[in-house]
C-alpha cells in the first residue's frame, strides 16, 4: 500500500507516496538485459563500417530508455504527509520539484470528502476547512482512494472527552 498510518498518544500521521512497481534494482536488471540484447546484432558487425552506422541508433535508443526510467523515478519523489492532532490538521505536499505546499486547519472544522463522479478522477478525495479545499492522494489508484476515505473520516472524527 503506498500509504501508511503512524499513531502516537497525541497525534496520527498519514504518509502517502506514489507506488513504484519496479524498484531501482529491477531497473538495473532490465536496463542491462536490454543493453545486452541490443548489442547482440552488433557483434556480427565488428570490424566493418556498418558498425559505426548502427551504433549511434542503439546508443540513442538506450539513452532514451534511461532518460524515461529516470524521469519516472524522479516523479515518484512526491510525498504527502497529513498530521492530525486534537487541535490542528496539517497537510504537507512535497512535489518532485519546488518547495513544499502546506495547508492547515482546526481539527474541529476539517472534513474529508469524496467525489465519486464529480472530481477530475473517480473517487476524488479532498480535505476541506479554513475556507479552502485541497486534494489528497492524487497519485493513488481508485481502489486505494476508496479504502483511504474510510480511514481518513475515522481519523478526523472528533473525540469527546470522558466526563
Describe the protein in words.
The protein has 163 residues and is α+β, with helices and mostly antiparallel strands. The protein has two domains: 95 residues, PH-domain like (Roll); 52 residues. The protein is built from three helices and eight strands, in the order E-E-H-H-E-E-E-E-E-E-H. It has a five-stranded antiparallel sheet, with no helix packed on it. It has a three-stranded antiparallel sheet with strand order 6-7-8, covered by helices on one side. Helix 1 runs antiparallel to helix 2. The model has no long low-confidence stretch (mean pLDDT 89).
Tell me the number of strands.
8
Q: Ends: how far apart?
A: 38 Å
Give the overall shape: elongated
Q: Which ranges are low-confidence, i.e. pLDDT below 50, for 5 or more consecutive residues?
A: none
Features:
28% strand; alpha+beta; 2 domains; three-stranded antiparallel beta sheet; PH-domain like; five-stranded antiparallel beta sheet; elongated
Q: How are the SSEs placed, and which strands pair?
A:
Blueprint: E1 3-7, E2 11-16, H1 24-43, H2 50-75, E3 79-85, E4 88-94, E5 101-106, E6 111-115, E7 124-129, E8 132-135, H3 142-156
Antiparallel strand pairs: 1-2, 2-3, 3-4, 4-5, 6-7, 7-8
Helix pairs in contact: 1-2
Structure, briefly:
With 163 residues, this protein is α+β, with helices and mostly antiparallel strands. The protein has three helices and eight strands. It has two domains: 3-19 and 79-156, PH-domain like, CATH 2.30.29; 24-75.
